[in-house]
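FAQ: What does the model actually see?

It sees only this:
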Amino acid sequence: MKIVLSSGHGTKIRGAAGNPVPPYLDEVDEAIRVKDAVAIALRGQGVEVTTYTDTVSTSASENLDRIVDFHNGQGAHDLDVSVHFNSTGEGMTSRPIGTEVCYLTQEALAMTVASAISDASGLINRGPKYRDGLKFLNATDAPAILLEVAFTDSSADAELYRDNFAVICNAIADAIAGEDADDGPGPRPPRPPEPPEPPPIGHPTLEEGDDGPDVARLQDTLGLPADGDFGPATASQVEAFQRAVGLTPDGVVGPLTWDAVDELAARLASGSNGLPHGLGAPIVALAKASPLQSYDWPGRGESPPGYIPGMCLCYALAVTRLLYGGPGNSVAQVLAQQAGDPDDDAVAWYQSELWKQLHIDTDSDGVESMRGLFVIMIGLGMRESSGRYCEGRDMSASNVESDTAEAGLFQTSWNIESASPEMGKLMDHYWADPVGFLEMFADGIYPTASNLDVYGSGEGAAYQFLAKFCPAFAVFTSGVGLRKRKDHWGPIKRKEVTLSAAARDLLQAVEDLIAEQHTS
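And it is asked to produce this:
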């Protein structure tokens, strides 16, 4: 077996570096150390190894040319390996970030090496990363992988790397020596023409003041109007998202934030709102034709154009889950319980009004009790947020902890989580599949920076973001909360919520549509 092993960048073309070093890392210095140590370990296993470090180049294009030309000039060999260290591009952090291995055709080998580094050191395994924009992977003639051993600007990564340097290098050698490179799926792509400068890698770093299609793509994924202008609202939503996923909330969209955005986009693309096919459009048409659409809510005026249709879609999802099963059936059963203890249950608290004003009987489990709950919720959403899905916390209050800051349609905070085990299930479900009627609830709404602010960190921050990004999540967590801890909402406790006969009639019409589709 013959391997050509080089360190990334060069002594005159420095790569990434933390500040200060130490405790952070310098990419070039550490890549040279790893290259040399891995070569020694490989030779000890009888592997023929040729190594290279560029000590000459003074430009990035020259550096890439020299590295690729060296590898391709070593005659027939089995594998090309380039050693690098990564950077978040988002400033120094104490968070552990991890190790990854980039590949074009060698996914299995990249996975093996990344796992070996992680197992040896405790570095987070970020796994194999497909990269078709790296010249080293595209232009070397032999199969190739590019190691990103750790992140230079993570003090946690730096500590794990330094404490486990020898075992990391031995693990890399063992993984490479024990795995045969394969030719990948089909022939290697033809060697591309040499550009005057290296091609851009990944997404561009974005921040407030930028504009263009990359900003529009970012906005679209984060649920904002995609106008391509990175203004204060976009900056606020980026910071909110960063808090939700545990990144530094600086509003700058660098590699780590882009990774998280791409993961969110993938979850959205593979997700589903859960409604049976063909049911959504007639429900929306029904809601938009309802007199409730132009109802003058006391002290609030008309609802936003997407609020009533959005609530009807959520109601339809709850009813179908209750009647026909599927994910969320246990939540639907809670929403449809008969009136319980009026000290805890909003349906029981309003039971007399629901019967006397609307003839809704909540004495038994089922759709009618759920209908009573949603009549209350439609009124509560107008009272708490004027039907605006993106509403942030009450700025007149001092609730700024992650689990007390209010968020979304019903101004619910995450300290409601302890009211029911269903709360955690809802968080898990909608975090994995965040498709929740956002496009409908967002109709006619233009969020402001203050709307989108998220406070604190951890699960409470994730809740705040998700409650505004995925309105169905806000509806169902608040629905469970209303059945289990009604005093969370002042307007409920004070009986200030308007109970509308038009809402009752519309919800009954939704039930009829569901029954009609199910029997057709």
